[in-house]
Amino acid sequence: MKGLSGKVAIVTGAARGIGRATALRLTEEGCKVVINYFKSEKQAKELQEIIGEKRSLLFKADVGKVEECKSLVEATVKHFGGVDILVNNAGFFEPKSLAEVTEEDWDRMMDVNVKGALFCSKFSVPYMKRGGSIVNITSIAGLTSFPHRLTYTPTKTSMVGLTKALAIELAPNIRVNAIAPGVIETEMTYWLRADEEASKRRLDLTPLKRFGKPEEIASVVAFLASDEASYITGEVIVVDGGFLFLRPY
Ligand code: NAP
Question: How far apart are alpha carbons 32 and 4 in whole angstroms?
């Protein structure tokens, strides 16, 4: 895609799932990538072996901690000389009902799923000297909700708000967009895909009749990061096989 070759991209949570597919796709498009990981060191190292050390940097950081977001960006700049693309992908999901949710649950999920994206953006922007693109991974759960999403949905709705607020603040040189995936085949959705009945209910409401692949999010990230999307900012692209528009309530 136009404008990606030679660019430096930070992908948070790149060792697994959507982040991994994104790191691979961006390197296929000619980017140099920073593979951020937190717990999945082995997978991160395996990914770096595939991409090659010349075109990647491994960096362990808990994006729920502001100082670690800063270190991630500083290491990127030291190694590659700048930042062009930031993919705020890192996130986790835990089902929580109102009865069981605690203050710690709320704080941790907001820290990792939202605060990390804000501070990775804040620290990266001064180094986006040739313009830039930020892509945030939200969720259809941030546009609607499902049972037991007392913490997850607010984090993902916040990512939509953060995308729009940053898009205004950073225009015209930096574009900021979000992707709202439906059910994608990663470890995060294993519990749903392992439940035959729940999967069937979901697929019955999904026009494309299947779950998505991480690569089908990565291709949209690459598009939004590239010059092919040069007139798109503040937008949320839903990638869910048609589930959301068909949803009957
Ligand atoms: P996944 O396979 O569970 O991967 C989650 C990634 O986030 C891992 O790479 C993990 O890194 C990273 N992560 C979690 N906590 C972190 C922290 N504190 N610091 C740094 N990295 C951290 O899930 P996924 O499906 O690829 O999810 C990626 C993003 O897509 C998430 O934001 C998720 O909410 C969103 N999403 C997914 C779906 C779906 O259906 N899969 C749908 C909508 C939205 P380590 O393993 O190294 O700790």
Answer: 9
**62 Cβ closer than 6 Å to some ligand 1 atom:** yes
Residue owning the nearest CA to atom 2 of ligand 1: 17
Contact residues for 113 (Cβ-Cβ < 8 A; gap 6+) = 90, 91, 92, 152, 155, 156, 158, 159
pTM score: 0.98
Locate the ligand 1 atom nearest the alpha carbon of residue 185 and give its number. 41
> How far does the centroid of ligand 1 lie from the alpha carbon of residue 17, in Å?
7
Alpha-helical (H) ranges within the chain are: 17-28, 41-51, 66-80, 103-110, 116-124, 152-170, 190-193, 196-204, 214-225, 243-246
Q: What is the pLDDT of residues 16-36, one digit of tens each?
A: 999 999 999 999 999 999 999
Q: Please, are residues 63 and 36 in contact by the beta-carbon 8 Å criterion?
A: yes
The tens digit of pLDDT for each residue in 77-96 reads 999 999 999 999 999 999 98
The alpha carbon of 79 and the centre of ligand 1 are apart by a number of angstroms equal to: 25
Distance 245 CA to ligand 1 centre (A): 24
